[in-house]
Amino acid sequence: MRVFVLAGGEGTRLRPYTYSAPKPMLMLGGKPILQYVLENLKRAGLKDIVLTVGYKHEAITSHFGDGSRFGMKIEYSVEKEKLNTAGSIARYRGKVKETFAVVMGDHLTDIDMADMHKSHKKSGAIATIALYHAKTPLEYGVAKVEGGKVVGFAEKPLLEHDYNTAIYFFEPEIFDYIREKEDFSKDVFPRLLAANKAINAYLFDGVWFDIGRVSDYERFVELFSLMRFMRELEG
Asked: What is the pTM of this model?
Protein backbone atom coordinates (compact mmCIF):
# COMPACT_ATOMS: atom_id res chain seq x y z
CA MET A 1 0.00 0.00 0.00
CA ARG A 2 1.24 3.46 -0.88
CA VAL A 3 1.67 6.10 1.82
CA PHE A 4 2.06 9.79 1.07
CA VAL A 5 4.22 11.50 3.68
CA LEU A 6 3.84 15.27 3.47
CA ALA A 7 7.18 16.95 4.20
CA GLY A 8 7.20 20.12 2.12
CA GLY A 9 6.41 22.83 4.65
CA GLU A 10 8.76 25.64 5.64
CA GLY A 11 8.21 25.36 9.40
CA THR A 12 8.15 29.14 9.84
CA ARG A 13 7.05 28.89 13.50
CA LEU A 14 10.23 26.93 14.25
CA ARG A 15 12.65 29.58 13.06
CA PRO A 16 15.56 30.05 13.54
CA TYR A 17 15.98 26.24 13.57
CA THR A 18 14.33 25.87 10.17
CA TYR A 19 16.50 28.47 8.48
CA SER A 20 19.05 25.74 7.82
CA ALA A 21 16.86 22.62 7.61
CA PRO A 22 13.24 21.72 6.85
CA LYS A 23 11.12 20.93 9.90
CA PRO A 24 10.97 17.14 9.26
CA MET A 25 14.79 17.07 9.36
CA LEU A 26 15.16 18.67 12.78
CA MET A 27 17.07 16.26 15.00
CA LEU A 28 15.73 14.44 18.07
CA GLY A 29 17.80 11.80 19.80
CA GLY A 30 20.26 11.63 16.93
CA LYS A 31 17.63 11.11 14.22
CA PRO A 32 15.48 13.50 12.19
CA ILE A 33 11.78 13.70 13.07
CA LEU A 34 10.89 12.27 9.67
CA GLN A 35 12.82 9.08 10.41
CA TYR A 36 10.57 8.36 13.40
CA VAL A 37 7.56 8.81 11.12
CA LEU A 38 8.91 6.33 8.58
CA GLU A 39 9.89 3.82 11.25
CA ASN A 40 6.35 3.80 12.63
CA LEU A 41 4.97 3.18 9.14
CA LYS A 42 7.45 0.34 8.61
CA ARG A 43 6.29 -1.32 11.84
CA ALA A 44 2.84 -1.55 10.25
CA GLY A 45 4.28 -3.09 7.08
CA LEU A 46 3.86 0.14 5.10
CA LYS A 47 7.02 0.50 3.02
CA ASP A 48 5.91 2.03 -0.30
CA ILE A 49 6.42 5.73 0.38
CA VAL A 50 5.95 8.94 -1.57
CA LEU A 51 7.60 11.90 0.14
CA THR A 52 6.15 15.23 -0.98
CA VAL A 53 8.95 17.73 -0.45
CA GLY A 54 9.63 21.36 -1.17
CA TYR A 55 11.53 23.68 1.17
CA LYS A 56 15.20 22.65 1.38
CA HIS A 57 14.24 19.23 0.06
CA GLU A 58 17.85 18.32 -0.69
CA ALA A 59 18.36 17.63 3.01
CA ILE A 60 15.59 15.02 2.87
CA THR A 61 16.53 13.36 -0.40
CA SER A 62 20.21 13.08 0.50
CA HIS A 63 19.45 11.48 3.88
CA PHE A 64 16.79 8.98 2.81
CA GLY A 65 17.70 8.36 -0.83
CA ASP A 66 15.62 5.62 -2.44
CA GLY A 67 14.77 4.22 1.01
CA SER A 68 16.67 0.95 0.59
CA ARG A 69 18.94 1.77 3.55
CA PHE A 70 15.81 1.90 5.70
CA GLY A 71 14.12 -1.16 4.24
CA MET A 72 11.62 0.94 2.30
CA LYS A 73 10.91 2.13 -1.22
CA ILE A 74 10.84 5.93 -1.41
CA GLU A 75 10.01 8.21 -4.32
CA TYR A 76 9.81 11.98 -4.23
CA SER A 77 7.30 14.55 -5.42
CA VAL A 78 9.04 17.93 -5.44
CA GLU A 79 6.81 20.98 -5.04
CA LYS A 80 7.85 24.30 -6.57
CA GLU A 81 5.20 26.20 -4.60
CA LYS A 82 2.94 25.71 -1.60
CA LEU A 83 0.23 23.19 -2.54
CA ASN A 84 -1.36 22.50 0.90
CA THR A 85 -2.17 19.04 2.22
CA ALA A 86 -4.63 17.80 -0.42
CA GLY A 87 -2.97 19.69 -3.25
CA SER A 88 0.27 17.86 -2.49
CA ILE A 89 -1.17 14.59 -3.74
CA ALA A 90 -3.44 15.98 -6.50
CA ARG A 91 -0.89 15.17 -9.22
CA TYR A 92 -1.37 11.47 -8.45
CA ARG A 93 -4.96 11.57 -9.68
CA GLY A 94 -5.48 8.50 -11.88
CA LYS A 95 -2.21 6.92 -10.74
CA VAL A 96 -3.46 5.43 -7.47
CA LYS A 97 -5.81 2.48 -7.91
CA GLU A 98 -6.16 1.16 -4.36
CA THR A 99 -6.51 2.26 -0.75
CA PHE A 100 -3.72 4.61 0.36
CA ALA A 101 -2.67 6.62 3.40
CA VAL A 102 -1.58 10.20 4.00
CA VAL A 103 0.45 11.26 7.05
CA MET A 104 2.47 14.27 8.09
CA GLY A 105 6.26 14.10 8.03
CA ASP A 106 6.75 16.19 11.17
CA HIS A 107 4.46 14.55 13.76
CA LEU A 108 5.58 12.06 16.42
CA THR A 109 3.12 9.23 17.01
CA ASP A 110 2.91 5.54 17.85
CA ILE A 111 -0.49 5.08 16.19
CA ASP A 112 -1.14 1.54 14.99
CA MET A 113 -1.50 2.14 11.25
CA ALA A 114 -2.34 -1.51 10.58
CA ASP A 115 -5.27 -1.38 13.00
CA MET A 116 -6.41 1.92 11.53
CA HIS A 117 -6.35 0.37 8.07
CA LYS A 118 -8.59 -2.46 9.30
CA SER A 119 -11.03 0.09 10.71
CA HIS A 120 -11.06 1.95 7.42
CA LYS A 121 -11.75 -1.14 5.31
CA LYS A 122 -14.45 -2.37 7.70
CA SER A 123 -16.21 1.01 7.57
CA GLY A 124 -16.58 1.05 3.80
CA ALA A 125 -16.06 4.83 3.93
CA ILE A 126 -14.22 6.88 1.34
CA ALA A 127 -12.04 8.38 4.09
CA THR A 128 -10.90 7.61 7.63
CA ILE A 129 -9.50 10.26 9.97
CA ALA A 130 -7.37 9.43 13.01
CA LEU A 131 -8.68 11.45 15.94
CA TYR A 132 -6.60 11.85 19.08
CA HIS A 133 -8.78 11.79 22.18
CA ALA A 134 -7.49 14.21 24.81
CA LYS A 135 -8.70 15.95 27.96
CA THR A 136 -7.74 19.56 28.64
CA PRO A 137 -8.22 20.99 32.17
CA LEU A 138 -9.58 24.51 32.51
CA GLU A 139 -7.78 26.78 34.95
CA TYR A 140 -11.00 28.15 36.44
CA GLY A 141 -14.23 26.97 37.96
CA VAL A 142 -17.24 27.00 35.63
CA ALA A 143 -20.78 27.87 36.64
CA LYS A 144 -23.95 26.59 35.00
CA VAL A 145 -26.59 29.31 34.80
CA GLU A 146 -30.30 28.86 34.12
CA GLY A 147 -32.88 31.65 34.34
CA GLY A 148 -30.41 34.05 35.86
CA LYS A 149 -29.49 31.68 38.70
CA VAL A 150 -26.47 29.48 39.29
CA VAL A 151 -27.71 25.88 39.28
CA GLY A 152 -24.40 24.09 39.15
CA PHE A 153 -20.69 24.54 39.58
CA ALA A 154 -17.66 22.58 38.38
CA GLU A 155 -14.17 23.29 39.67
CA LYS A 156 -11.57 23.18 36.89
CA PRO A 157 -13.47 20.73 34.69
CA LEU A 158 -11.86 18.66 31.96
CA LEU A 159 -12.78 19.50 28.40
CA GLU A 160 -12.71 16.48 26.09
CA HIS A 161 -11.71 16.88 22.46
CA ASP A 162 -11.06 14.66 19.47
CA TYR A 163 -8.19 16.29 17.57
CA ASN A 164 -7.64 15.80 13.85
CA THR A 165 -4.12 14.37 13.68
CA ALA A 166 -3.87 14.65 9.87
CA ILE A 167 -3.42 10.88 9.60
CA TYR A 168 -5.74 9.56 6.90
CA PHE A 169 -6.72 6.51 4.88
CA PHE A 170 -8.48 7.10 1.56
CA GLU A 171 -10.05 5.26 -1.31
CA PRO A 172 -8.98 6.42 -4.81
CA GLU A 173 -12.39 8.07 -5.21
CA ILE A 174 -11.12 10.85 -2.95
CA PHE A 175 -9.32 12.40 -5.93
CA ASP A 176 -12.74 13.34 -7.36
CA TYR A 177 -13.11 15.75 -4.43
CA ILE A 178 -9.64 17.31 -4.50
CA ARG A 179 -8.82 20.50 -6.35
CA GLU A 180 -5.48 22.23 -6.76
CA LYS A 181 -3.83 23.81 -3.71
CA GLU A 182 -6.56 22.66 -1.34
CA ASP A 183 -6.44 21.47 2.26
CA PHE A 184 -8.11 18.28 3.48
CA SER A 185 -9.72 19.69 6.62
CA LYS A 186 -10.68 23.09 5.22
CA ASP A 187 -11.82 22.08 1.73
CA VAL A 188 -12.02 18.37 0.99
CA PHE A 189 -13.75 17.01 4.10
CA PRO A 190 -16.51 19.67 4.05
CA ARG A 191 -17.05 18.80 0.38
CA LEU A 192 -17.38 15.11 1.26
CA LEU A 193 -19.94 15.85 3.96
CA ALA A 194 -21.92 18.10 1.60
CA ALA A 195 -22.03 15.17 -0.84
CA ASN A 196 -23.26 12.83 1.95
CA LYS A 197 -20.07 10.77 1.81
CA ALA A 198 -19.23 8.89 5.00
CA ILE A 199 -16.05 9.77 6.88
CA ASN A 200 -14.92 7.08 9.32
CA ALA A 201 -13.49 8.14 12.70
CA TYR A 202 -10.57 6.19 14.16
CA LEU A 203 -10.13 7.21 17.80
CA PHE A 204 -6.86 6.60 19.63
CA ASP A 205 -5.20 7.88 22.80
CA GLY A 206 -1.60 6.77 22.46
CA VAL A 207 1.23 9.15 21.55
CA TRP A 208 0.76 12.04 19.17
CA PHE A 209 2.69 15.31 19.07
CA ASP A 210 2.85 18.09 16.51
CA ILE A 211 6.10 19.90 17.26
CA GLY A 212 4.91 23.24 15.98
CA ARG A 213 6.71 25.83 18.08
CA VAL A 214 10.24 26.57 19.17
CA SER A 215 9.33 25.87 22.82
CA ASP A 216 7.89 22.46 21.80
CA TYR A 217 11.02 21.49 19.91
CA GLU A 218 13.40 22.61 22.63
CA ARG A 219 11.39 20.69 25.23
CA PHE A 220 11.62 17.52 23.14
CA VAL A 221 15.36 17.99 22.59
CA GLU A 222 15.78 18.10 26.37
CA LEU A 223 13.51 15.07 26.82
CA PHE A 224 15.36 12.95 24.27
CA SER A 225 18.70 14.00 25.78
CA LEU A 226 17.46 12.92 29.21
CA MET A 227 16.25 9.58 27.82
CA ARG A 228 19.66 8.96 26.25
CA PHE A 229 21.40 9.87 29.52
CA MET A 230 19.21 7.44 31.47
CA ARG A 231 19.92 4.63 29.00
CA GLU A 232 23.65 5.27 29.34
CA LEU A 233 23.37 5.07 33.14
CA GLU A 234 21.48 1.80 32.91
CA GLY A 235 24.03 0.42 30.44
From this structure: 0.85
